[in-house]
Design brief:
This protein is α/β, with parallel strands linked by helices and 778 residues long. Strands 14-20-15-19-18-16-17 form a 7-stranded parallel sheet, sandwiched between helices. Strand 11, helix 9 and strand 12 form a beta-alpha-beta unit. It is built from 28 helices and 27 strands. Helix 12 packs across helix 25, helix 19 packs across helix 27 and helix 22 packs across helix 26.
């Protein structure tokens, strides 16, 4: 029997009446004792009655409450174990809070495998495309029935069918939430607590003995290929959120090691439990939430990135005026085109006018030259020609942040300075992983840490800015400083790309076909590609060649790392004057040399942005490249399903990645380990290896799911994903493929001949050429 107020409680949790009737009952008086106080380990009197001290502890149960039991998933038989929710809970003497649920004392916890009707079972089977399988076992169990009443019959073998058919499982906390999910058509198991899905043996001193393992009731479901989804509470308290994260990862990894596909269901609205969510928003809403669930890998890594801003805003343009005057480390997470650079320009102007030197650190030369123009300070290579030298400060690549650079860098020269690290995520990844930092990495890391400590200790300020800034970068800077620093952060949720059209193509040839059609129709495309090497069909030079053959009257400009360094090429002068120079060209093809920090505000010229995502760039890098053209013109993209660009052994698990024996990885690892050991001598600890490993795990995860990650990121930025136009094309897709292949073969042959023709340079000549910033093709 179920009391009315209990029944109403279950209905408010979106639990179906038939699930309520099969699993819950109301108890009062001494009845709850019979369901809970059954363990042979409990102290008892000679008569077998439980001791008075235990009866006293549990006397509140007599005021009534509701009870829910569970069953053995292998046999379908009832278990003795269950839980009781008292109407008048007792107070936990240690925590001072009510104990909401009571479980049998001195008994190992189990999980809730609730009873279902044939109708609920069929609903779950249909959701997972197993309708025929389920109907077959119904027929075998009770004979074919045609009336609706048979669907209300209790299914005693449901969980056995789930085990045998690898039905996806949703794991939640508590009987009510499991019942709500079952009612919505999800095969749900309820844990008695978030940590109660596994066991960990311990000694008398609470030290772990051996490895953790799944509880026996969950073990039959840990089969290869089965999907396990976790659906714990969406709690707002930081401490509780961290506990939920740890429990999810601990239990989830045990399933993952058994070969299961593990995911995590999350939602943004205020409803705390999944039963509250379904009751408030409906089953269809939860279906959408479930569809957007994240892999356990991504859930784990995003935990490293989660930000806790001091100011959460929704502004078209970022405003830093509310930053406290005593804050010395200020971080900015705000989307592209929200005025980060403009706001930092005001801060630089104010600093220079007051005599405070400014140091701007980046990772791409052309980006820094652009920032130098906007901030009104020189780029590093211009210092020799300026009378004032570095008095006002300057912009430099982090590669040159060491005493052997030209000019030499000395951290002690920057007392009280303003330091700006733009595109911080990419700067730190470049520092820790880029081959261009290889020879001086340890020295650069030491100098960088010393610079940050000097600036903060002498009253200066540090600004970190990035559209994708994460906790990883902020932690890295704080640990590099090595002592407490007043930090303030702002997170702007504004999406400038809201409802902008984004057309996705099924192949690179189809996108190339669209580009040729666009040009033929009088359009002026801006083309973005991650490839520069002519061995790739999608290299900028190959794309330019095939366009030039088809449209010899069109003016084409290629912007890549070679053309931008060649004083004889038009691209050389374009970088500091893009809006004027690009206006003279019908087609512009750019590589990641224009990936970040460049704003092309030219209007009424380009008719579309076309981007090839071959996997050479990071997910953030590709998405950044799409935004270099600020005008709201259609975006057309092709993205490879996965990328071959992996770090180390390609692992997404921190410990497994650090065990990689990849040759390139070992070189980086040794330099970072040396930097960590040196930094610990003077009391600081930048944790170079840990920061690198966290970033590398993310890179590997995104590489494995390259297309999916790019689509999700662009959709989160406000893009509207649509099918491409079906206009009549200039060439067929096969012809498009042939044009790319011919251009690649011809250009590769020309490059091979050009490379073989000149004599090899001497060691001295090579060293000079290697250090030379400007280089002609010759």
């Amino acid at each position: 029997m179920i009391h009315r107020h209990h029944y109403q409680e279950f209905l408010k949790s979106a639990i179906a009446p038939e699930v309520i009737e099969l699993n819950f009952l109301s108890l009062s008086g001494t009845s709850p004792h019979e369901y809970l106080l059954y363990s042979s380990e409990l102290p008892r009197r000679n008569t077998g009655r439980v001791s008075d001290s235990y009866l006293k502890r549990y006397e509140h149960l007599e005021d009534g409450g509701w009870y829910c039991g569970t069953s053995d998933p292998l046999t379908g038989n009832d278990s003795l174990w269950g839980c009781f929710k008292p109407d008048k809970p007792r107070i936990d003497p240690e925590k001072g809070k009510p104990i909401k649920y009571e479980h049998p004392p001195k008994v190992s916890t189990e999980a809730f495998f609730l009873k279902v009707t044939w109708g609920i079972g069929l609903k779950i089977a249909i959701k997972h495309g197993l309708e025929d399988s389920y109907k077959e076992r119904m027929a075998a169990a009770i004979g074919i029935a045609t009336t609706e009443t048979f669907l209300k019959f209790e299914d005693l073998e449901f969980w056995q069918w789930v085990i045998e058919n690898s039905v996806p499982i949703t794991i939640t906390e508590g009987a009510k939430k499991a019942a709500s999910l079952l009612s919505a058509g999800y095969c749900a198991v309820g844990l008695s607590g978030i940590y109660n899905g596994y066991r960990q043996e311990r000694d008398d001193y609470r030290n772990s003995l051996g490895l953790p393992y799944l509880i026996p009731q969950l073990e039959p479901f840990a089969t290869k290929g089965r999907e396990i989804s976790f659906c714990f509470d969406n709690d707002s308290k930081p401490k509780t959120k961290q506990a939920v994260r740890q429990a999810t990862l601990k239990t989830g990894n045990l399933f993952k090691y058994k070969g299961c596909k593990v995911s995590v269901i999350l939602w943004d609205c205020s409803e705390k439990g999944v039963d509250d969510l379904i009751a408030a928003k409906g089953t269809e809403y939860f279906d959408a939430v479930c569809q957007a669930r994240k892999s356990l890998e991504l859930f784990n890594l995003e935990g490293f990135k989660a930000l806790s801003p001091d100011a959460l805003v929704y502004q078209r343009y970022i405003d830093l005026s509310k930053a406290p005057s005593d804050a010395q480390l200020i971080w900015i997470n705000s989307a592209k085109k929200t005025g980060k650079t403009e706001e930092l320009t005001k801060i630089v102007d104010k600093a220079i006018s007051s005599g405070q030197p400014c140091l701007v650190i980046g990772h791409r030369v052309k980006l820094l030259e652009e920032l130098a123009n906007r901030f009104g300070i020189p780029y590093r290579l211009e210092l020799k020609t300026l009378e004032q030298g570095a008095i006002l400060g300057y912009c430099l690549c982090i590669d040159s942040l060491h005493k052997h650079a030209n000019p030499s860098f000395n951290p002690s020269d920057w007392e009280g300075a303003l330091v700006i690290i733009d595109e911080a995520e990419q700067v730190f990844w470049h520092l820790l992983n880029s081959p261009t930092c290889k020879n001086n990495r340890v020295s650069i890391i030491e100098t960088f840490s010393s610079l940050l400590r000097t600036v903060v200790a002498t009253g200066g300020k540090i600004y970190l800015a990035d559209a994708d800034l994460s906790r990883i970068s902020i932690d890295y800077v704080e640990k590099a400083i090595g002592f407490p620093v007043k930090t303030w952060g702002i997170y702007n949720t504004f999406k400038p790309s809201e409802n902008r059209k984004l057309y996705s193509y099924a192949s690179s040839e189809a996108l190339n076909q669209a580009i040729l059609t666009e040009i033929n129709n009088g359009g002026k495309p801006f083309i973005f590609t991650g490839a520069k090497d002519v061995k790739s069909k999608l290299a900028a030079s190959n794309l330019a060649s095939q366009i030039a053959v088809q449209f010899p009257d069109k003016k084409i400009l290629v912007l890549d790392s070679d053309t931008c360094k060649d004083p004889s090429h038009p691209a050389y002068k374009a970088m500091g004057n893009l809006n004027q120079v690009l206006n003279d060209y019908d087609v512009v093809i750019a590589t990641p040399v224009l990936e970040t920090g460049i704003s092309i505000t030219l209007e009424n010229h380009f008719t579309g942005v076309f981007a090839f995502g071959s996997g050479k760039q990071t997910v953030n890098g590709f998405c950044q490249g799409l935004e270099r053209i600020r005008e709201d013109v259609p975006r057309h993209i092709w993205v490879a399903k996965s990328s071959n660009e992996r770090v180390g052994n390609g692992e997404t698990d921190l410990k497994r990645l650090l065990r990689s024996e990849h040759q390139k990885f070992n070189l980086i690892f040794k330099s970072l380990a040396l930097a960590d050991s040196l930094s610990s001598i003077d009391g600081s600890n930048p944790e170079n290896i840990q920061t690198w490993a966290k970033m590398a795990c993310f890179q590997n995860l995104e590489a494995k799911n390259y297309r999916e990650c790019i689509f999700k990121k662009l959709e989160s930025e406000g893009y509207s994903l649509e099918s491409p136009p079906t206009d009549r094309h200039y060439v067929s897709e096969e012809e498009s493929k042939l044009l790319l292949t011919l251009a690649k073969e011809e250009n590769y042959e020309i490059e091979c001949d050009s490379t073989a023709a000149p004599p090899n340079p001497t060691d001295e000549e090579f060293k000079k050429l290697d250090q030379q910033n400007d280089k002609t093709p010759q």
